[in-house]
Design goal:
The protein has about 425 residues and is of the alpha/beta class. Helix content is about 30%, strand content about 20%. The structure holds 5'-deoxyadenosine (5AD) and iron/sulfur cluster.
Length: about 425
């Protein structure tokens, strides 16, 4: 039996929404009298906020649990949270006796109560997806990073055949507009200069007849807020209103993460993506008409069941057609319970490795070309953290590039710079005198 914990640590894996959830869990535990453990200090309670989207997610989570055993044989109280918790449920307690509680992504507002139960020797499991929003039960936001995440939408109704998200995060739900705006104000009061609106299908956000474009326009009116971003979008929900907002709302950054997954229409159909390479390219074109300098980013999966070399060539072609400023690419991983896991023609690992390498090389070429095309631009960066060398800080450009600059400006400062050099993964900037601009 565990005694009542006084300190906690949260380890978040996977996507930005888990980072957001981790922050909210931290605020909740703090409000309930616990303290975040200092670096290097043993915590009494460890929350593993897990991700289930790719390879061996569950195995990894169990081995992370195992590693929490201390040298003297003792261990912290352990909460398995996030998407692995949702997928495994009570099974997790059977597979690992070290796990004291299991809490899904829609139930973590109940953590303080579950911790109390665990202190009394119980092993609670809560993977409910209640109709009443967990957000209503969470404490108000107080402190925020210069760039702060704000979840506006959760879940997914698209059911791409490879993806676990509809099962782990549930159906698409949009948070009410007033709640989001209130949270955005609190984040700005707490120090945020940029807000990143999050959702598995963020551009499907809808409330009271308003779509994401309207929400962005409303948030843009908050004084002190400099920048707005949103992620991740589905091509099918890229409305003309949202595209137009990119040309009209100055605070909306010229960057769009729009996953395409494959360039082959045959594969897209088998993936149940509801767009073709042509409709996707048309959206990109409209986006560029609205905002000429927009940086496009994407996600790709190689080795989906049945993918031929010809299909893969179509993926390379769409990379060339879009000229991505950055992109993430993954080897297909069969997720238990998804339709694609049952499909024939699963692709051999060495074929996937080879395609992934070729795809990443092609993406890297475009990324470097994009970075080079921005050299010489006068722009602003939002300082986020210190660099590796003394006197160096790192900020983000409007196009989400990391920019290294010689400066002692604090995180949260908006700095006028000229981009002076491009690397494959980052830029160098030089401070620009305001009056010279
Ligand atoms: N295998 C590989 N990649 C996947 N993704 C989602 N599910 C899988 C899977 N089963 C990728 C998609 C998605 C990103 C978040 O993760 O590219 O856009
Ligand atoms: Fe998964 Fe497709 Fe939904 Fe994205 S849109 S979360 S890939 S099912």
């Amino acid at each position: 039996m565990q005694s009542t914990p006084k300190t906690f640590r949260i380890k978040s894996f996977g996507c930005q929404m888990n980072v957001y959830d981790g922050e909210r869990i931290s605020e909740l535990l703090t409000d309930n009298g616990l303290t975040a453990a200092a670096d290097g200090e043993d915590a009494d309670l460890v929350v593993l906020n897990t991700c289930h989207i790719r390879e061996k997610a569950a195995e990894k989570a169990y081995s992370d649990v195992g590693r929490l055993k201390r040298e003297d044989g003792s261990r912290p109280m352990i909460a398995l949270a996030g998407c692995v918790a949702q997928a495994e449920g009570a099974e997790a307690k059977r597979r690992s006796p070290m796990i004291d509680m299991v809490v899904g992504p829609q139930a973590y507002h109940r953590l303080p109560e579950m911790v109390a139960q665990a202190s009394r020797g119980a092993r609670p499991v809560d993977t409910d997806m209640p109709a009443i929003s967990k957000f209503d039960a969470l404490p108000k936001r107080r402190r925020a990073n210069p760039s702060a995440f704000l979840t506006v939408q959760e879940g997914c109704d698209k059911f791409c055949t490879y993806c676990v998200v509809p099962y782990t995060r549930g159906a698409e739900i949009s948070r009410p507009r007033a709640d989001i705006v209130a949270e955005a104000r609190a984040l700005v009061e707490g120090g945020a200069k940029e807000i990143v609106l999050l959702g598995q299908n963020v551009n499907a956000w809808e409330h009271d007849g308003h779509g994401l474009a309207g929400l962005i326009r409303e948030i843009a009116r908050i004084d002190g807020l400099e920048r707005i971003r949103y992620t991740t979008s589905h091509p099918a929900d890229m409305t003309d209103a949202l595209i137009a907002a990119h040309g009209e709302v100055g605070k909306l950054m010229p960057y769009l993460h729009l996953p395409v997954q494959s360039g082959s229409d045959r594969v897209l159909k088998a993936m149940n993506r509801s767009h073709t390479s042509e409709t996707y390219l048309r959206t990109i074109e409209k986006m560029r008409d609205a905002r000429r300098d927009i940086a496009i980013s994407g996600d790709f999966i190689v080795g989906f069941p049945g993918e031929t070399e010809e299909d893969f060539q179509a993926t390379l072609q769409i990379v060339d057609a879009v000229r991505y400023a950055s992109a993430y690419s993954f080897k297909y991983s069969a997720r238990p319970g998804t339709p694609a896991a049952q499909m024939e023609d699963q692709i051999a690992p060495e074929v996937m490795d080879d395609r992934l390498q070729r795809l990443q090389a092609r993406i890297a070429e475009h990324q470097l070309a994009f970075n080079r095309s921005t050299v010489g631009r006068d722009t602003q960066i939002l300082i986020e953290r210190s660099g590796r060398h003394p006197g160096q800080m790192i900020g983000r450009s409007p196009w989400l590039q990391s920019v290294h600059v010689e400066s002692s400006a604090e995180p949260g400062t908006m700095l006028d710079v000229t981009l002076t050099a491009a690397g494959p993964n980052s830029m160098t900037g030089a401070i620009r005198q305001k009056d010279a601009a």
